[in-house]
Amino acid sequence: MILYSSLILIIVDMTQQQQQDCILCKIALKKIPAHIIIENDKAMAFLDAYPLSKGHTLIIPKSHYSKIQELDEDSSQSLFNILWKITNPVEKASGVNSSTLAIHNGKEAGQEIPHVHIHIIPRNRRDGAGPVHSMFKNKPNISSYEMSSIVEEIKKSLT
After folding, report:
1. pTM higher than 0.90, yes or no?
2. Furthest CA-CA distance within the chain
C-alpha cells in the first residue's frame, strides 16, 4: 500500500509540475498576458502569439489536458462551443471567408505544447499553405476491406 501511495504522489507531482511549466496553463491562469477574445468557465480563446496568419486564434481548455480524449464532457462542450461562436467573427475580422481548424492530438501529430488547443487559422488563396492532404507525402493505400476492419475496431471501442 505504501508503494502504491508513493506512486500516486509521484504521478500527481509530475502532473502538477507539467501544469506549472505549461505556457497555456499560465495563460489560462492569467499569469502571462494574452489577447483574450472570449472565455467561459472551462475554456478560452486568444490570439496566437506566433500567428501563421492575421487573426490566428487558439482555443484551450482552462484545465490541463494533453490530448482531446482526456477532456471531460463539460470541458469538451465548452471548448467546442467557443470554436462554434468565434469562427465566423475571426474570419470577418481577418478579412477572409475561410479558415483551417486544426487540432494536433499528440506529439507524433505535431503537437508542440502538450495542452489541448484548437487553431483557427484564417486563410486565403494566396497564403502559401495547402489543403490538409498536402501535408502528407507518404499516403497509405488502404483497401475497402481494411477500411471496413478499421470501422469495426473503432465501433468495438465505442461500446
Report:
1. no
2. 62
